[in-house]
Amino acid sequence: MTRKYVYYFGSTRTDGDRTMKELLGGKGANLAEMTRINMPVPPGFTITTETCDEFYKAGSVWPEGLEDQVKEGIATLEQELGKKFGDPVNPLLVSVRSGAAVSMPGMMDTVLNLGINEKTLKAVAEKSGNERFAWDSYRRFMQMFGDVVMNIPHHDFEHALQNIKDKKGVKLDTQLSVEDLKELAEVYRGIYRKAIGEDFPEDPWVQLSHAVNAVFSSWNNSRAIRYRELNEIKGLIGTAVNVQAMVFGNMGEDSGTGVCFTRDPATGKNVFYGEYLMNAQGEDVVAGIRTPQPIATLDEKDSDSYKKLLKLRHDLESHYHDMQDIEFTIEEGRLYILQTRTGKRTVFGALNMAVDMHEEGLISKEEAVMRVPAQSFNQLFAPVLGADSKSAARFVTKALNASPGGACGKAVFTAEAAEEWAERGESVILCRLETSPEDIGGMAAAAGILTARGGMTSHAAVVARGMGVPCVSGAGELHVDSDAKMLKCGDITIKEGDVIAIDGFTGEVFAGEVSVKPSEIVQVLRGEMKAEESVLYSKYQKLVSWADEIRKLDIRTNADSPRDTEMAVLFGAQGIGLCRTEHMFFEGDRIVPFRKLILVADTVKRLREKIETGTENLAELEAELSEPLATYNEALAELLPLQRGDFAGIFKVLDGRPCNIRLLDPPLHEFLPQDQQGQKEMAEEMGVKAEEIALKVEALHEFNPMMGHRGCRLGLTYPEVADMQVRAIMEAAIEVADQGITALPEIMIPLIGSVKELEIARNRAQKVIDTVLEEKGRASDYISYSIGTMIEIPRAAVTADLVAAQADFFSFGTNDLTQMGCGFSRDDSGKFLDDYVRMGVYERDPFASLDVEGVGRLVETAVRLGRKTKPGLKLGVCGEHGGDPASIRFFNAVGLNYVSCSPYRVPVARLAAAQAVLEHK
Ligand code: ADP
Ligand code: MG
Ligand code: MG
């Protein structure tokens, strides 16, 4: 038996329904569904996506049996409508429409009026009593068929149309007479013959098979492929083809066509939103030839259709339980619906609608939580351009909305300039042809980024989103000249220092000053605006509170300062999952004592070892040690109170929430200046010779620092640094506990490979803890502290049962675990990872979204082994992946206790963690 390729929808029978999107495409599935619930849909049939797949596999030929099924479909249509395909008396005309499972602009445009020819058009004229309409339909069909199906340049037809209008001295298409249109059809015929080498096909069956083939072929045109790439659409097999009886919006002033949304897609407000044109067909509304009217005015023109439309709006929402994007046509006062789909919306719209629809009783809390995309949730917190100010500014161009947020500043054209100007306190917009990794510094310093090239996943777009810097990319109309330090767009020229603004929500670019405001949610959280004054805030608050009821994972934050911690707590963080102590060393002039320490650390270590083992020259060695040791101890003594102060500050802000503190992690060379100038300055500051510093830098040089002397390895070889840090943590905890604030320090030892490393480090830390408690005369349980480790080396993951014996908790450092698990250097993999993703080796960049198949298995193994040894072992994750929704889904599934992410990702993680639970059900 041959496969079923054709699914009919109409009053005779309806084969499909809304659940069959994969097979029938979104358009086809919903046409079937609406027919089922008796909405006024013109009948037709859908050729499945599988057919498209078979068509390709067979080398662009129709599979066996398709032709018969298409003929049967047309026959059913003919019977139902009492018309005949190609009939000179009562002809059936159809549209041919593409439609994949996911809506995909870039695929083939719709062909209308198929089946019309010199013969059938006479009948169309007679039946409608409107000869002009018939000829207009015919010439539109010739143009669409020639352009869309046969790929004759669109321009050739437009040119001919313009010629005739000029010749007749008219402005609008509608002013052309029957005779003019006949003449135009003749010209079109010539264009067709010249381009294709054949006569324009009059046979409707030939028209139909060409059109179906063209839809199939459009699945792999470059526009469609590009769109799928940009939007990460994968795993679809092809497009469906919908063949549907025509209804005519261009039959006069009692006919028309329009598009509308059941709610406002931008704001989410519960208002009917849309546009229409009377006496128009198909894409006229979006083509911009005539200005469409706002939907509310339809009430005056055709009140009956308007009322029916309002009812459809209501019925569709209650049937689909979501905002719908619908297309309709009115033929001589009769309303038809031609398409419905779940409407695209901004994240603001999604939030508003989800909360409203729950409160209207349309959807459950769970559904509301699922409705808001976690991936774009943080757009709610980005600064925005003032709307009034925007409309007053000079519009330059519109491109991709690559990273959300509004920014206004002075244009600069190199990353260095961006850094220099930002240093001086200027707000700058970095304008580049495209960005590259060398530009990172400038990108971070910029208030916004604008590029002429590159898509949604270009370097600029990805990095900007990661940094939370607003970005507009792929602005192809811009000519950016970084040598001349200027850009041009049409007659607008922007030079270095000129003020411009970008809107990363919409992709718009403006010349001149535009006001920038922080998000209302941030204003309310910071106490700069009253909660009651912000609708956005109240909706946000409701949605995240529902998410909190659902989720199982705790959400913590990665923060190293009281300020970041404060923001994270406002965003709902339940603790710190990673406090990187080394970041504190870079603040102000703290780097000075730390650098002093680095300079002598090795000498101290070497001499001490000699003294311990040797008997010879003991006195001499001790004399030699005394000066460097004094420097070493002084430096530690200087650092201790600084660190203690930092920790106390953070504990206070956390106010009883746990705080995971990682002991020193990076290789020491990162703390020394690598360039001559920096070394000279450091030498002056320390009162040593520049050569000495250069020598030290050389000595610390490693071929592979990420696998070198860092993490717990530093702690084992220079234990006094770790001692100092543990002491600072405990003293700070006692200090705040004395003030009545609970401090819950979790001391984390990084980069463990073997349990032995952890055992040594842990014992050493425990000694310091005991000493501090004793010195202060506090009981051993005065502070609830714990000691654990990061799991970031594969060896630790696969021996987690052993490691767990020495750990109170594990925190997965998935950045390093990915680096070492996949064998990809974090700093070098950019060169090939994009290609790898394109080739499908990895589904996504494994540093951005956890490689579940491989690195995920390491995590899973460590979870299982760790809990085997210690059932109550606390488990978390602190890598970049802690804020990535797809990764969060995995962490929820393997049963971690928490994820930790940067402060502004906390709400994203709250939402994603709830969605993970709901999806897992
Ligand atoms: P797109 O996927 O680009 O929205 P559609 O297949 O929805 O393309 O077709 C675009 C427009 O063509 C529709 O909105 C409608 O106005 C018109 N159209 C399509 N099929 C018919 C039809 N059977 N009768 C009348 N108009 C139609
Ligand atoms: Mg459409
Ligand atoms: Mg690490």
Verbal overview:
The chain has 921 residues and is an alpha/beta fold. The chain contains 36 helices and 33 strands. An 8-stranded mixed β-sheet has the order 14-24-23-16-17-18-19-15. β21 (486-489) and β22 form a beta hairpin. α4 (118-128) packs across α5, α14 (365-371) crosses α20 (535-550) and α28 crosses α29. The chain starts with 5 loop residues before the first strand and ends with a helix. The mean pLDDT is 93. Bound molecules: adenosine-5'-diphosphate (ADP) and magnesium ion (2 copies).
Q: Span between N and C termini?
A: 38 Å
From the spread of the alpha carbons, the general shape counts as elongated
Helical element count? Answer: 36
Number of strands: 33
Biggest sheet architecture: 8 strands, mixed
Helix-strand category: alpha/beta
As residue ranges, the low-confidence spans are none
Bound molecules: adenosine-5'-diphosphate, magnesium ion
Topology:
Layout: E1 6-9, H1 21-36, E2 44-47, H2 49-57, H3 66-81, E3 84-85, E4 91-92, E5 94-99, E6 111-114, H4 118-128, H5 131-149, H6 154-168, H7 178-196, H8 204-218, H9 222-230, E7 240-245, E8 256-261, E9 273-278, H10 284-287, E10 293-294, H11 298-301, H12 303-320, E11 324-331, E12 334-342, H13 347-359, H14 365-371, E13 384-385, H15 387-392, E14 394-398, E15 400-403, E16 406-412, H16 415-423, E17 428-432, H17 440-445, E18 448-451, H18 459-467, E19 471-473, E20 479-481, E21 486-489, E22 492-495, E23 499-503, E24 508-511, E25 516-517, H19 520-525, H20 535-550, E26 554-558, H21 562-570, E27 576-580, H22 581-585, H23 591-613, H24 618-654, E28 658-662, H25 676-686, H26 690-700, H27 712-717, H28 719-738, E29 744-749, H29 755-775, E30 786-791, H30 794-798, H31 800-804, E31 809-812, H32 814-822, H33 830-839, H34 855-869, E32 874-877, H35 885-893, E33 898-901, H36 906-920
Parallel strand pairs: 3-4, 16-17, 17-18, 18-19, 26-27, 26-33, 27-28, 28-29, 29-30, 30-31, 31-32, 32-33
Antiparallel strand pairs: 1-2, 2-7, 5-6, 5-7, 8-9, 8-11, 9-10, 11-12, 13-25, 14-24, 15-19, 16-23, 20-21, 21-22, 23-24
Helix pairs in contact: 4-5, 5-7, 6-7, 13-14, 13-20, 14-20, 20-36, 21-24, 23-24, 24-28, 25-26, 28-29, 35-36
Bound molecules: adenosine-5'-diphosphate and magnesium ion (MG) (2 copies).
